[in-house]
Hints:
This protein is an alpha+beta fold. 36% of the residues lie in helices and 23% in strands. The protein has three domains: 3-90, Immunoglobulin-like; 98-121 and 333-492, no CATH class; 137-163 and 209-327, no CATH class.
Amino acid sequence: MTILLEAYYQKKIAQVVPEYARLELRLHNSGTASAENLSVLLARRVLRDNIRLAPGATFAFEWSVEDYVGELEFSVSPSEPETRLKITVQPEKLSSNELLYIKTERLPQLLARLDAPNGFSLEYTGQNIPPFDFFSADYTAEKLRYFSERLQELSSLLLEKLDYITPERHDLGYGMIKGAVRWGTTLQHWLNRPESAGLRHEWSNAHKSFGTLPNMLLVYFHFELASQTQNLARLVELGSYSSTGLKRVLPALVESAAQHRLFPDNPYLVMLPSYLSGFDPVANEVAPLLAEMCRNARNPAYGAMLELWQRYCSAYVRLPKDESELARCGLQPTSKIYELWCACEVALALRLEYREDGNKGGYHFANAEYRLLYNRGIQGGWYSAKRSGTARPDLQIEVIKTGKRILLDMKYSLQETRKGETFANPEDVYKMLAYLNDFAVAVGGIIYPGKGEARLINDGHIQQFLELPLRPPVNSDQLSFAERLRGSLLQIL
């Protein structure tokens, strides 16, 4: 069975296409036998399945690449020999170099400066699209490297004095006294002469058990880091944007995962992996007892390990285990990447910090002056009531002292004039003005991937509107870029 997969764009075979291009994918059976139950996949995402091709037959269907920018790899399953097709999608609003810089350099820098996690789950309620999970491969690698090196350091200290318990033993008929115990003079005399005291006793040194909760956390933590490192390697293999530096050190990261897996070969811990299937260190009935035992252990390194684990749980977002979910993380829509990058740039320009929302499961950015809410639902009037779900302006800035509120929307679109000037799309501007009225907010604006200076438009009464073109700075311009952005934001604040 010989299957050929080709992509056509504007009726020509294509290898490089612009974003939002509409392709025709053609599947041809050039063999002499029928092909049954074929599926066309993008990474692990199924685009078409249950395809049947007679010898010499062709099956074609249309598919839009939307704003999945970068190298897309299609495959046909099952096929022998293996059938694969690679298409490069070029961005149109940003250059390829700008997009690569945002994903592999700028966003990891921003997330680190804001002390934010390595991943964000963004859900757009009311829209018929799946949640978009963003993971920075480079920032995830930095996080894992930190936790891996720190745990290895602590493990060497823990192995010098492992935590253990001595199991209680009781025999029927009399109590058994165990261990090398120094008793008081009177009691020692009775022990030396049991027949005169009517006391029967026997010395016993019970075997030590290293199956304690702190040791189980130690082994669990090593396995957890091994699993996450392997998932990171798969994320990069599935096409997630990553720097050349990360691709270069990836084999060393995979080797470190193997070292984490081999850690329990210690003779005292070798049996513990078999106990881990039902072990959950964050379960309500386990976590308090685990914390108490780590803090009270004879080796103080257990307390440091507990702190490292708690830091891991709060500052690191696990990569998906499922292969198809990992593949979807590798196909990151450019519009959402631009949106998240803008939110982080605004947060840094206003000198905010990342804040967890506790039981709400979300996050925001804040300091003593401002609070920045990202993709948070808001109740409006009649205009937003026509939406299928709660309206979610991309950014809401709140002035804490006055309660003043400003709405900003990020739009990955622009309008270019004949002179080469770029402006926000007028349709987006009108829509945003309608939302400002609907939410009874006097100040707002649009951030878009244009060039030039920010424009603050005043209607002569109350309403002010900011058109803010935002593109990534070149390395030499980062400081002035941040100051210009801060100045533009302070104008409306």
